[in-house]
Amino acid sequence: MPGWYPDPAGTPNRFRYWDGRAWAPDTTDNPNAARPSPSRGAGDPEPRRPGNGRGRLGPLILALALVVVLVVAGILVFRGLVADRPIVDSGPLPSSTVSGWDDSSPTTEPETPTPTPSQSRPTPTPTPTPEPTDELPVQPCPEGQPTARQDHPSDGRVHGGDLSFPKVSGWTDSSGTSFSWAYDVQEQTKLAESPSWYSNLAVGALFTGDGFDEPRRAAELVMQCVITSGLYPHLTDRRDTWSKAVTVDGHPAWSVRADIEIDDPRLDATGDTVEVIVVDTGSPESLSMFIGAANIGDKPLQRALDTTISKLRVG
To answer: pTM to 2 decimals?
Structure first.
């Protein structure tokens, strides 16, 4: 744009006028000065005449015309060379290729004119919305510290977290180290006829920061951890009996019960009936859990499991 600009010659604090095509001889130290009146100096170029521009464009136009002729000639020669060559059909796209368009359309579409605003392409088939489900997402089992114990009374009961149950005669006290995702675990165990298989009754605490944030989710996660933590290396099936809300000593809780079946040729046992109960005792940092497992088909052990659950207490 025409105006005063810093002197291209580099003179400090001087401005030279640009008339839109060339630098004027006029300079000033005020960039807001008025536009200088038109004049030609001794070194100014000749003013442009109407015919000068067209005269200089003549050779350029001829060169461009020659380029166009060469391009057209090259296209004609190339078409002549490939006219007799067969066209290779690559065939349909692999079946694994997924298209959002109508599958009835051919895989290779012929060239078509650009559609006008009145024309419309087929719309993608909408993805159906999945039906809601009650299943909770599977989470990895967190790392707890089952041997980290709180102070509990010596009152003939097994304590863990904020839960307790009366000791069962003939069962052995244990620290419950198998439940690696929990804290403050105490349990009782009883060996079955097979010396490497046992039933157990355990109570402990679950840290809410590990994902055990409410009883239902925590109970489902604990059941998953029981199955995947190595306690049942020859697992063949899990048959759920129930997953329901319950109360323990007046506190809201959730119970999950399932038959965990195994197939280990070294054992006579076919698996366990496992029940997990998670109780909200009012602590903002933890929930309390009960885990019981009794050999499938063993009525005395099943009866001990059910009796212990009925005698669970908070505190």
So the answer is: 0.58
Residues 228-287 pLDDT 10s: 888 888 899 999 999 999 999 999 999 999 999 999 887 777 899 999 999 999 999 999
162 and 20 together in one domain: no
State the Cα–Cα distance between residues 157 and 311, nearest whole angstrom: 10
Residue 15 in any domain: the answer is: yes
pLDDT in tens, 32-90: 888 877 654 444 444 444 444 444 455 566 667 676 667 666 665 555 554 454 444 44
- Residue pair 107/90 in contact (Cβ under 8 Å)? The answer is no
Split into its structural domains, the chain has a count of 2
**CA 107/CA 174 separation, integer angstroms:** 68
Q: Are strands 271-279 and 313-314 parallel, antiparallel or unpaired?
A: unpaired
CATH number at residue 229: 3.40.1000.10
What's the domain range around 23? 1-36
Output DSSP code: residue 155.
S
* CB 301, CB 199: distance < 8 Å: yes
21 in the same domain as 163: no
Specify if 79 maps to a domain: no
Q: Where are the alpha helices (DSSP H) in the chain?
A: 50-82, 215-228, 299-310
In a domain, 164, yes or no: yes
